[in-house]
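The material for today's practical consists of a large collection of protein records. An example says more than a description, so a record of this kind follows:
***
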Amino acid sequence: MRKLTIIVCVLLAMCCVVPSFAQEKPPAAPPDDVAAKLDGILDQIVNGIPNLIPGAPAGALLVRTKDWQYAKAKGFTMQGGSDKVTPEMAFQIGSNTKMMTSTIILQLHEEGQLNIDDLMSKYLPDIAARIPNGDKVTIRHLLSHRSGIWDFVDGSRPKPGETEKPKDGLFYVALDDERLFTRDYTPEELIDFAVKNGKPEFAPGSVNEEGKPNFAYCNTGYVLLGMIIEKVTGQKAEAAFRTRIFDPLGMTQSYLETSVPKKGATPQGYLDGRDVTNFNLSMAWTAGSVIATPSDMATFITALLTGKLFKNPATLALMESDPTINAPTGGDYALGLQDKAHGGGLWGHGGQTLAFESDVAYDVETGMAIVAWGNATSNPAAYGATLVKGVLAPPQPTAIPLTMQDIHGKLLKLMSTYDPATAIKREFAQDDHYTVVFNADGTMNITADCNKVSASYTVSGQNALTITLGASTLVACASDSFADQFLASLGKATTFIIVAEAQNLDVILLDSDGASLSFQSTP
């Protein structure tokens, strides 16, 4: 279960592909100035980021380099409790599980036991026959979220003109029914739910009107991958995870949970204040049910990104290949792994269950592993890796404009919009249909499709923004015009962010709910 919000400026014993090794002794503590910066990020996880995202009752942050390790936690194991959380405590890693599922699939590909360009129907013929377009779906499609199969977790996306996301996914349905919330599910039941309740998003491997691959995040696909793992290896998924990943890496505190977690396995987790720790993780299975400690996850992500989980370096390169650029997941999404720095080599994933939010990544340039979690469904831990990278290893442009003065008079063209309530990202062609200009005198010139609109703006503090819309030419645009939504979003903006990106300036306007408009200016 994933939801994106803009951030401010995250084997069988004899056939194992790697030798067994234990975790190394933790290195020294970080320098004081580094620790202070990381303390600030941990504070954000618990306290939230004003005007962007709330905090969590508790959180933890682990950053490991070859020279030092930072590992701290803050808060209590349950709301109103007195037992403090520790950085050694396990958490529900959610969709970070997908990195492990993908790793095992690619190990099997490397061993010649399957090929990722095989059709799913080769391994799951009966299942494929029941899924719409199932006979056309390849393993690669499942890994890259390009299958178009309906996502049983989050459910349907809003139809054109709808403002609210339908709550027809299994997680939403289970929240209203304690029996569904706590019962065990088989993988087949999860697939049945998807088949009975949803329709395909698009044809497998198809492209959109811009010629780019269609992408729809799909937990159903990763359950199917788990079923393929069981079919090919002859093992239960939890055994395959243990023998191919956990045991070889010495991840003694990690396991694939297949039911309701045992009491005390993790701190309590919350959804809008409701304790949802006891939701049955079989509902996520190989798409998101692993429980692990931060230290174990740092060990995993380091081993993965340094090639220790594959025999052939080409397999890791394959895992990182042909990413969907600027995917709705917040990075460039490849095969169960995404570059959160959009070409900057911050590879990892994020994870969200009903009870926890987390982020796991490895910075290839610096050799830094980052793990963050918070025990609430939405909190800044989702961006832990990006926040850490930003303060410890920021990019070094020649100049970074941070004030409104840096964009005065510049034509800003709309690149994309994002609505966290519906998890929909909409991209635009950066033409002249949707543009804004912030003038030095506090006025604005706006183009909203077929209309010209005047406006004024005020800036307070460093990044607070208020836009007041004025007169419009009031031309009737086409029925599918985005003009009304564009203007409404401008009027709701409360914060702006300006970032130097190569020769361009990226300007992001956000409202109090975290919805965003992203613009770009060219020299």
